[in-house]
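SPTN2 protein, pasting as requested.
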Amino acid sequence: MLRDKFREFSRDTSAIGQERVDALNALADALIAGGHPANATVAEWKDGLNEAWADLLELMDTRSQMLAASYELHRFFHDARETLAQVREKQKQLPEEVGRDLSTAEAMQRLHSAYEHDIQALSAQVQEDAGRLAQAYAGEKAAEIRRQEQGVSQAWAELRGSSQGRRRLLLDTVDEFRFLRAVRDLLLWMDGVRLQIEGQERPR
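Structure tokens follow.
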């Protein structure tokens, strides 16, 4: 990766360059201290060398910061695309079946609770990164960051709406099956009472 290669290059260049600059500064200082006839020229060259070295270090630092910012931006776009794909995939995974009886409907309800837990954290990271990056960028890049975030947010809102709709449907289905079971149990009880009444000896 370019950012890592440049970081390694910058580290190596800084270390080697600093050694060489330090050695030349020590040599210049020795010449000046020894009363060399070209003291003024040596001092001038030393100052020029140190200034050029400081400029080069600043240039490497600026380049490193630009590469880091570019990496962050590309990583954000990659993460946004990944999250959007995951959200769409989760939308496809949302089943329509609600169960044939109470036990399968309750099992579907448990599965749906696990599903909702899985999808909860999907968009949070993209929104957090977008908020941070939008402050660091202006113009077209900031607008693109917002577009990516809005795309994820919209898909997330649709998924959450579908998920909530399914949760309500499953709740209604479970309630319906529980009601039907209660009705059946009550009818069976009434049939039992009727059989007891009809089975008793009639008065003479």
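Note for the archive: The mean pLDDT is 85.
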